[in-house]
Amino acid sequence: MNIAEITVSGNIGQVPEIKDVNGVKVANFSVAVNENYRDKQGESQKKTHWFNVEAWDGKSKDGKPSGVVTNIIQPHVGVGSTVYVRGFPQIDSWDDKETGQKRSGFKIKIAGMSSQIRLAGSKPENGANGSPKANSTPKGKKDLDGMDDIPF
């Protein structure tokens, strides 16, 4: 069996760019993942790694868009949102229009049932590709249920 999968958890670095490609929504955004380590002198260091992500919606049986872009990214994801992303590692190649040189870039592609995007603190429903639960709290809103139980 062949498996190619990458998982990252980090913060959204830019407003997701959403396009329509032949009636299907596609979102492009970047995720920042921080690496903490100690240098040779024992000093604590932090390095940020950026991952480009391309997420594709599917279409429901009635032809309407459904999936991660329509249900999660468009309504809930913005700059600074903490996300968990699981998808297919993809390397694209192209010719640079200015220099004529071959270029390549790496991205995580979210498409299909094995892919997933999840907002921090939410859990996917069975068989869902990262859709938040129906009772999840939208971005920017605090879930205040149970606040009376906090002991202070």
* Major sheet: arrangement of strands: 1-3-4-8-7
Q: Give the strand tally.
A: 9
The CATH topology annotation reads as: OB fold (Dihydrolipoamide Acetyltransferase, E2P)
Total domain units: 1
Q: Roughly what percent helix?
A: under 10%
> What's the CATH class, please?
Mainly Beta
Q: Radius of gyration from the CA trace?
A: 18 Å
The N- to C-terminal Cα distance equals 53 Å
Structural class: mainly beta
Q: Please state the average pLDDT score.
A: 79
Distinct helical segment count:
1
Order of helices and strands: EEEEEEHEEE
The main β sheet shows up as:
5 strands, mixed, barrel
Shape: globular
In summary, what is this structure?
With 152 residues, this protein is mainly beta. 6% of the residues lie in helices and 47% in strands.
Key features?
single chain; 152 residues; mainly beta; OB fold (Dihydrolipoamide Acetyltransferase, E2P); globular; disordered C terminus
Structure, explained:
By secondary structure, this protein is mostly beta strands. The protein has a single domain, classed as OB fold (Dihydrolipoamide Acetyltransferase, E2P). It contains 1 helix and 9 strands; from the N terminus they run ββββββαβββ. A 5-stranded mixed barrel has the order 1-3-4-8-7. A two-stranded antiparallel sheet has the order 5-6. Strand 7 and strand 8 form a beta hairpin. The N and C termini lie far apart (53 Å). The C terminus is likely disordered.
Task: Reconstruct the topology from this structure.
Layout: E1 6-12, E2 17-21, E3 24-38, E4 44-56, E5 58-59, E6 65-66, H1 68-76, E7 82-95, E8 102-110, E9 116-119
Parallel strand pairs: 4-8
Antiparallel strand pairs: 1-3, 1-7, 2-3, 3-4, 5-6, 7-8, 7-9
